[in-house]
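tool=predict chain=A
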Amino acid sequence: MYSYLRHAAGVPAWAPLAAHIIALCTLPSALWRIGIIVGFPVGYDTGWIRRSELDTLHGGLYLTFLCVLSEVLALLAFGLIQRWGETVPRLVAVVPAAAGALGLIAVWTVGVPVAAITGTTFDSEMAAGTATTVQLLAYAPMAVWGPLLAALTWQYWHRRSGSALRR
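tool=predict ok
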C-alpha cells in the first residue's frame, strides 16, 4: 500500500518540492477564511462580513467548502509525481492539470498582482486598506500554484511519454 506513496521512477529532484509548495500555498487563504468563520474578522469590518452573509451558517459552509476544495485540488499535484498518479491514462491527468494550471495562472499569478498594484478590491463594497492588504497577503502564495502546476504537468507528460527522455 505505501509503495503507492513513493515517487514514480524518473521524477526530477525539484518536483517533490514543487508539489509540497503547492500543497502549502493554499493554507494562508484557508486560515484567512477560517478566521472569518470563527468570528475573527482578519482585517475586515463586521459590517462587510454581515453584508456578505459570511457570518451565517450558509456563509460558513461556503467558506469551509472553499478551504477543503482548494486543499484537495492542491494535493492532487502529488499525483503528478507519485506512483498512484500513473495508474490513469496520461491524458486523463494532463488535460485537467494543464487546464487548471492555465486557470490558476490567469486568476492568481496575474490577477492578484494586478489587484495589488491597482488597488482593486474583490468586492465593490469592500474598502481598500487593511482588509484588502490582509486578503491579498493571504491569497498571494497562490500566485505560485499555477506556474508550479504547469511545470509538474510538463514533467509528468514528458516522463510518461518516454520519448523526451530517450533523445
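The two ends are 34 Å apart (CA to CA). The mean pLDDT is 87.
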